[in-house]
Amino acid sequence: MQEKREQKGLSLWQIPEDLRAYGEGEILPRYANADPAHGPAHVRQVLANSRELLEGLEVDPRMVYVVAIYHDLGIPSFGRKDHEKTSARLLREDPALGRWFSAEEVETMAQAIEDHRASSGREPRSLYGKIVSEADRDIDPERIVRRCMAYGRSHFPQLTGEEQVARAVEHIREKYGEEGYVTLWLHCPRNQAGLDTLRRWLATGELEEVCKRYG
């Protein structure tokens, strides 16, 4: 059902068919070797979330689409460290985008990708950066826990089950807790509600039990 909802959302973008074919035929498959938390399913979710945030914003949907589909592209080839920089570089260096965008538009999209990480601590320079940042947050509490546990199993297989849970709880506290570094740049009731839920789970200890379900 979720996949059908995402596909329906993408069909409403009014993205040129050849651009969408390039994005989903040439770019999206390059995420196949990424860790489960940053693979094709995550990118499709960010695409769907980005589309939902467009209402009332004066932006070019084509650029929103490209930013979303490239935003983590550096991870499969270069890893998670500094991936906002490697992903932006891959976008800048892709000559195919010249078919649809000016050099200035390409630079704006690259800057949006550079600005998208919650841990950057700075406000994105454009609406495109704010959109992808908010879309990438995707503060669905259950999904965040599931992705966090999957990332831990993939990157720290030596940890015991209890250690995986402790790692996930600490990461979620650091990012989403009352003193966490996540900032919501756009009005998004769904993300605010999800953030409130995560903070409640942290305060009550319920988060550990949720993590164990995905251990």
UniProtKB/TrEMBL annotation:
<dbReference type="InterPro" id="IPR003607">
    <property type="entry name" value="HD/PDEase_dom"/>
</dbReference>
<dbReference type="Pfam" id="PF01966">
    <property type="entry name" value="HD"/>
</dbReference>
<protein>
    <submittedName>
        <fullName>HD domain-containing protein</fullName>
    </submittedName>
</protein>
<feature type="domain" description="HD">
    <location>
        <begin position="42"/>
        <end position="137"/>
    </location>
</feature>
<dbReference type="InterPro" id="IPR006674">
    <property type="entry name" value="HD_domain"/>
</dbReference>
